[in-house]
Design goal:
Length: 93
């Protein structure tokens, strides 16, 4: 069984609020919210919560849960990283 241990901002927010809730707030299908945790090579966002849906998440958290989120909450914290960070190529000319 293969797994990666990279925690991303998207995975953290999904863990905190659930795919169902984020899908409702953003009016996205659950499969698209789940894809935020996939590498870009698999059609995902590489752990990035798309910028266009961030205001809806902030508003949904405030309205439904009385939770104040800021745009900084969508960035990596405490050892998190985005997926598919391309390392510098050694053979680049």
């Amino acid at each position: 069984m293969t797994s990666h241990n990279t925690q991303t901002p998207a995975a953290r927010l999904i863990e905190r609020f659930s795919i169902q809730t984020l899908a409702r707030w953003t009016r996205r299908d659950r499969s698209r919210v789940h894809a935020w945790t996939w590498p870009k090579s698999r059609g995902g966002t590489g752990g990035v919560v798309p910028h266009p849906v961030r205001p809806a998440i902030i508003q949904g958290a405030k309205d439904d849960l009385n939770v104040d989120l800021a745009y900084a909450d969508f960035e990596p914290i405490n050892g998190e990283a985005y997926l598919d960070a391309a390392p510098a190529r050694e053979d680049a000319q």
